[in-house]
Specification:
By secondary structure, this protein is of the alpha+beta class. It has one domain. It is built from one helix and four strands; from the N terminus they run E-E-E-E-H. It has a two-stranded antiparallel ribbon with strand order 1-2. A two-stranded antiparallel sheet has the order 3-4. The chain binds zinc ion. The site of zinc ion (ZN) has 6 residues, from loops.
Length: 73
């Protein structure tokens, strides 16, 4: 394996074709596309989950509000 680069994210070596050089606070570092994509997907998934949770909370709050109204009646 000649053309491998150390991936700071996975702490292992990947083929050069799978690597991207990125800027970090501590300088230029190599990271594999897979981990970059996984992070991106992870963020999207978290955001989607966050939206979902907000909707559930809203629905719960609404059903609680309805319950309160029913009790009052
Ligand atoms: Zn990697």
């Amino acid at each position: 394996m000649a053309d491998t680069i150390y991936c700071y994210h996975c702490r292992t070596y990947h083929p050069k074709e799978e690597m991207r050089q990125i800027e970090t606070k501590s300088g230029k570092r190599w990271r594999c596309i897979k981990s970059i994509e996984a992070t991106k997907r992870g963020r999207e998934a978290r955001e989607a989950f966050g939206r979902q949770t907000t909707d559930i909370n809203k629905a719960e709050a609404q059903s609680k509000a309805r319950l309160v109204l029913n009790v009052d009646r």
